[in-house]
Write a structure and sequence with these properties.
217 residues; Rossmann fold; 43% helix; two-stranded antiparallel ribbon; alpha/beta; 14% strand; 7 helices
Amino acid sequence: MPFSAALYPVGLVLAGRPCLVVGGGDVARRKVEGLLRAGATTTVVAPEIAPELRALPVRIEPRPYRRGEVAAYRFAVAATGRAEVDRAVSADGEAAGVWVNAADDPGSCSAVLPAVLRRGPLTISVATGGESPAVASWLRDRIAVVVTEQHADLARLASSARRKIHDEGGSSEGLPWSSLLDELADLLAAGRGTEAAEKAARFAEAAARSGRPRSTE
């Protein structure tokens, strides 16, 4: 069933943290691949596990899910295709305070997995509150036409400038970032990457010289 309240968007930092996927088929494999891209230390539990899933760098436990074991993980995905098992994982997660995504069962989710577009340091996600993953994927694919590798370069330049400002003890808050990004985007679109990098560096140097102390961000 759809969620009764709006989702609260958040990006989980899962690198090096233990995550569980219950299920051994193609859906579970796709979920595992997403967790691996995030650097999660992933364990897969299922009586039968597809060869493609076994080939991934995960811990494999070929057995049924044991009630309560989700408590040992930071995040879990239930993808067995068996409602009673997936809902048991969800219920155990709720009891243990572990966020659980139940594939194709939004009513059993405490977390939903959006359609994701990655461009370098950029991560763009589209979610429909579990109502229509197909729409989320459709819209993600159309955003992908607009958001290109130039936007990834833009993010890298802005990150470098922000880091320089912080290294000099300055604050990146309240600066005219929007105007800068408009100019950098135009330069990158024109193939003038060196000029864009120089402009970002000058911006950072000027901000650092302004003497504005760094605030908590």
